[in-house]
Structures are given as C-alpha cells and as structure tokens.
Amino acid sequence: MYSLNNTIIACSTNLSLTSAIGIIRISGENILESIAPFISLDIRKIKNRFAHFIKIQGLNKETIDEGILLFFKGPNSYTGQDIVELQVHGNPLLLKKIIYLFESECGFSTAHEGEFTYRALKNKKMNLTQVEGLDLLIHGKSDYVINEGKSLLSGELNQLYCNLHQHFLSAKSSLEILINFTEDIDEDYAQTEFYKSIEKFKANLELLHKRVSLSGNKILKPRIVLSGRPNAGKSSFFNRLLNKNRSIVNEAAGTTRDYVSEGLFIHGNEFELIDTAGLRETEDSIESQGVEKAEDIISSCFYNIYLVDVTDITEEDVQNINKSNPDLVIINKSDLISTDSFTQPFEDYFSNFSTLPHSVEQDFDAEDFFEKINRKFNDLTASAPILLERHSDIINDLNDKIKLDLFSSSNYESFDAGIISSELLIIQTKIESLIGVLSSDQVLDNIFSNYCVGK
Length: 455
What we know:
Elements: E1 8-11, E2 19-28, H1 31-35, E3 51-57, E4 63-72, E5 82-90, H2 92-106, E6 109-110, H3 115-122, H4 128-139, H5 143-154, H6 156-180, H7 187-209, H8 216-220, E7 223-228, H9 234-242, E8 260-266, E9 269-275, H10 285-299, E10 303-309, H11 315-324, E11 328-332, H12 347-350, E12 355-358, H13 366-381, H14 389-402, H15 417-434, H16 441-448
Parallel strand pairs: 1-6, 7-9, 7-10, 10-11, 11-12
Antiparallel strand pairs: 1-2, 2-5, 3-4, 4-5, 8-9
Helix pairs in contact: 4-5, 6-7, 6-15, 7-14, 14-15
C-alpha cells in the first residue's frame, strides 16, 4: 500500500470546508527542483526552516494563489525526507487545483491515510508506540485520551514497556547461562537467580496489567445513549440537551427508526449523544432494524440513559431496564402525575436505580445531570487505564503466559530449561511487538487506516 520511493502530496488541513488557511504537505526527494517552474521564488534563495513568500503559478505563469513556503531538509524533518509545506488560502477549490497541478506536472502521488507518518516510522523518526500516541492526540475526545497520546508520543509509556523488556532480558539471560554454562556454575544458584529475575518481571508486568482497561473503547469514543420505549420522550430530551431541534418529535410511536447523533461537550470532554429507536416488538422490517441497531449501541455505550413515560410505565420497561442495566433512569413527563403516586406501581423497583425526574414543561437541572456523567468518566480514568486495544491485548496475553506453573518457583523440582526457553521465545515476540521492534504489515495497516490524509 505504501512506498518510500515516490514523492507524495496531500492537504493536511480540511479539504471539505472553507477555512482561512490551507496547508499542503509534500514529502520526497528533489522537491524544490520539481516545483521550481511553478513558484515565483528562485529555489536557490530558499533556506532550510525559513518562511518564504511565494506565488504559485500555472503552466502559463498565471497566479493560482500566493502564500508561504516552508522547506525542511531531510533527514532532519518529520518524515526523514525533504518536506515542503505550502500555507495558502483555505478555499477547497484552490487547494485541489494546486495539488492537481503538482500531481499532473511534477509526477507527485496522492498520499494515503497516514503515509507521512508511515515514512517517519520507516525512517526511524518515530517508533510504533509514538505513532499510536499521535493517533490518540489527533482523535482524542477528552483530556485523558489526549494526555495518554502525549505520554505515548513523548515516550513516557513506552519507557515503562522498555523497562519491562529489560527485566525480561535479565530473566532470559539467566536461563541462557543455566543452559550454556552448566559445567561452570552452580545449578541450584542459577535456577534461584532465574526465578528472582522472573519475579521482578512479574512485578513490572502486574503494574501494567492493573492499568489495562476493559472500558478502553468506551473511554476513547464515549457514547451517551438515550434508550426507552417509543414515545418515552427520548427525542425531546435529546433536543433539550443540545438546545436545538435536531431530532424529529412526533406523537406517532416509532418516529425515530434509525439513531441520530450529535457531539456534546461536558466539562471539557466531548461525548457522542445518541437518540435511538424506541425499544419494542414490531413487524415493521425497517423499524425492526432500527431496534436491533439501538440494542447494539446500548450494549457497547459509555453511559446508558433509559427514559420512561411516568404516565405509561409497563412491564416492558422493566424488562428493558433489567436487560440493559442503565446508568440513569429518567422519569419523564413527571409534571403530569402527583408525587404521592409517582411511578406507582413501580416505585420500589425504581428505587434500585439512579433516577432523575424530567419534564419539558419545567426547569431541568442540567448541571446535576452532567455531573453524573462526568463522575463516571472520572471513575473510569482514575486508574490511568491503558486505552489502546493492541497494547491491552498484548499485556493480557503476557499476564496469562507468565502465570504458567513453569514460571513459578514452586516448579523448582521439575525445572525444564528447554520448555521454559520455548515459552520465553513466545513472550519475547509479544514484548517486542509491544515496544514496536516487531510489527506485522496487518498491524501497521490497522494503525495507519485511522490516520487522516496529510499526516
């Protein structure tokens, strides 16, 4: 998919929306010589890491646009190759026209997603965990995710992985001494030293394993889902939280057949607020698909809010709540019924859940509502969880492997250096994959597919 031999070009800013400035990035060899006929400045005057005002000219020397040219001489650049960045006006039509000019006349290739960073990885300007950290930094929806991206990018988390690798190498060396120098050392002493090294490795691994989060994806892409039976008031509540009429509200049951989503900022973090189809048995095939999709979203969401119509609570609500175990139950249309008969005959049942009364006809304490959501997010991130699924999977695999009896000092009497050596090779492969020494094409494709074009 990726090549290192061609010169690539892409827009590093938004190519769909108009903006004040657009940035075009080019990486390869002999870029200045290639673009010389199409810029107004003599390339001999272009200095490394200086800003130069230029005009970009077409085949007939007509001015397409004017802006700033920055040149970064390889290997001291982001990709390790020569890089030119053009800061021009952010009209998408102008940006596309400039890119087309250089592609058609200079032979540059359109960059794939993440191809600039791929070249940085291949030219050893970054390691694999830094690449993954950059991905979190770009796409992070919360301070915690962004900070973990910074930690990976700066090498802080990778240093913990490298420390684990060093403890592993100590254990591996102890075993190799035992295997290769049996006649020169005391065997009992060598076995004892091996198990001491393994215990140190286990202790470091345990610290990382405690940070592996089962809720990693929920933190990376936190979804707040509004669920409930048809006409429970989900769409009205959805619109109220957004302070705009985003979702259709109608008295007819089953109006929302597919989910509707919008971004919602709560205490500096961005969540995806989702209005789902009403949960009910239906013979309508389209509505049925919407219900199935709603159930899938509910099962994997960060925060599930179930809304009930206080004037029409049924056993079906109870079944839905028991199935989805919501974080919060909104008692909707609460102004239509007296406090004395509130939620009867289900008052005792709802006492088992966190509830909040709501009515579109009355004021709503949104801050209390947002605080409940923020509290859960803070609780999930309090233990500094490792979010990336690839890292979590490897750490879990390592933890399972190191728990084998043959790595326990209780196995002293049945010590088999050959079997242990074979298992250590498996562990070594996993650790080297964790720190980015080994990385398959499939892993790289999965990582870079999430990158934006131009990065």
